[in-house]
Structure formats: structure tokens, C-alpha cells
Amino acid sequence: MTDEQSTMIDFGPTAQRVTALLSGVTDEQLSAPTPCGAYSVADLLDHFMGLALAMRHAAEKTTAAAGPAPGQGSADKLDPDWRQELPRRLEALAVAWREPSAWLGTTEAGGVTMPAQMMGIVALDELVIHGWDLARATGQPYDCDPSSVETIIGWLSAVPDEERPEELFGPRIPVPADAPPLDRAIALSGRDPGWRA
């Protein structure tokens, strides 16, 4: 196994955790705010829909058919069948990234080309952090498998402040040195781990 293949990440646990949140989202909560900037819950769900599709195609190296850029999310565009469709897309995303070839070479999503290994970590970051966003916005508990959280912490810690895209990250939030790993990851993404709806 090469060094590239040895860095494969199983998206399954994180995708399943996000899917489990969906049954706890009520129609009344779709207009509620989230910790993700100006996104409402419906905006965030639409973002998840595009993200899951685009990042699956990034894994498959079939980006020409990837559809909308994953950075876009709009309540007005949210598929009315999201409760059924989003779990399917998340599962397909996890399956696609289980292929060793997904982690090799370069790939593209949302008009950005980068090494496939890095794209995989970006996709994992999106799932972990936005899963937390959705849980907080809808008043649900959220945990994440430790290996995924540690991967996100390592990546977010390594990105210099001047290279952090403002549209993706806010300023890092200080947390105690003994804060739980998920709180550290959330703070590194620019969110307040204590955020409540």
C-alpha cells in the first residue's frame, strides 16, 4: 500500500451521523438560523445536497457532471424530497471515497482543483462541521468518530490564517487546552462551540 492509499478515510460513520440528524429536523425549523453564517437550516440542507453530489463526483473523477458548486446553498432551491434524497447522496459519497483510486492524483469540485487526498479531507471537514451546524440549529445531540475529528483538527491547524478563505472559515475561536476534540475542531473552523439556537 502506498502512502497515498494509507491515508484513506472512511466517510461512513460521519455520513451516517449526519443522516441520523435528518429525522429530527421539523418543517418549522427550516427557517431557523444555524451557526454557519447567514445560512438557515433549509439553506444548509441544500448545501449538503450539492456538497454530497459534488464530492462524490470528485472521488469518482467525474466532475463534469458534478452539478452545482458545493459552496452554494439556498432554501429556495432545496429539493422537496431532501429527506429521502440526501441520505442516498451521503451514502453514495461514502461509497465513492472507499475506493483507493479516489485518493490518488488530482480532482476537482466547485471549480477548485487540488490533490485528491486534500479534497477528501475537505469533504470530511464539510460533513463534520456542517453536521454540527445542523445539530445545533435543530437542538439535537451530535458526536463524531474520533479519527474523523482528529483528521479535521490536524488539517484546520495546519492551514495558515492568511490562507483561510473567508467564505469558508471565520476567525479561530480560542478554547481551553483541555476542550473536547470536537469543540476544538469547531473552534478552529471559526465557530463558537457554545453556540445555541
Automatic annotation (TrEMBL):
Signal peptide span: none
InterPro entries with a match to the protein in the record: CHP03086, DinB/YfiT-like, Maleyloyr_isom, MDMPI_metal-binding
Pfam families: MDMPI_N
Listed Gene3D superfamilies: dinb family like domain
Domain Mycothiol-dependent maleylpyruvate isomerase metal-binding: 15-135
NCBIfam families, alphabetized: maleylpyruvate isomerase family mycothiol-dependent enzyme, TIGR03086 family metal-binding protein
Name the UniProt record assigns to this protein: TIGR03086 family metal-binding protein
Organism: Streptomyces javensis
